[in-house]
Amino acid sequence: xxxxxxxxxxxxxxxxxxxxxxxxxxxxxxxxxxxxxxxxxxxxxxxxxxxxxxxxxxxxxxxxxxxxxxxxxxxxxxxxxxxxxxxxxxxxxxxxxxxxxxxxxxxxxxxxxxxxxxxxxxxxxxxxxxxxxxxxxxxxxxxxxxxxxxxxxxxxxxxxxxxxxxxxxxxxxxxxxxxxxxxxxxxxxxxxxxxxxxxxxxxxxxxxxxxxxxxxxxxxxxxxxxxxxxxxxxxxxxxxxxxxxxxxxxxxxxxxxxxxxxxxxxxxxxxxxx
Length: 274
Prior knowledge:
Blueprint: E1 12-15, E2 30-33, E3 37-40, H1 45-75, H2 82-110, E4 118-121, E5 126-132, E6 152-158, E7 162-168, E8 175-183, E9 190-201, H3 207-216, H4 234-242, H5 249-254, H6 260-269
Antiparallel strand pairs: 1-7, 2-3, 3-4, 4-5, 5-6, 7-8, 8-9
Helix pairs in contact: 1-2
């Protein structure tokens, strides 16, 4: 049975259900929580270093292969040396595709700062991200965007329009990733994707989703002191994680908005046009 959220994301293995009383474990992903909002990181330093290293190796190896491939194409005869010619063409295409796919991955690992936190406000039902433009799941991209490695996307979403799914990485280690599917209001039509919890083994891939749902439903299973920073350490959290990362002032203030009316006042105060 396919996902109810279409178009279906590659690697999909299951849709997740919203609601409280879910299996929950904030793990080391939860940075901070108070009665208004919580913040989860989506990239750890260790994973950034590991994947950046691996991707750099792939790119370094691809460049000379591509150069050699073009050189051989000019020297080979497609008629008398057709088998070798076709092999070179296929290898060349594979390397170019690999570079095309690896460059965005490298960018978002190199330019993700302080875990790229995602913020959930349970009083307003809003979700905030400030992340690398390449921190998404697009395959078709304008190659010109590769000239802007530090490009960002900073957005506000409605929790009601976000639905969770789990995707598989198809590796021997069988790791799953939780993705938030951004749907058009009151539909199952997907218009965007947000990474929530990457590369978890087994049932662990559902714990962060469960914690967020419990938090948004004000369920006590989501403890406000489960994170790295305790609820009274909001100033330290903002100084260490939020400050200097390009978050708009209105958005930082909106983290603590206690109602949609209060949020509207904040947006009016900063003349926010959305």
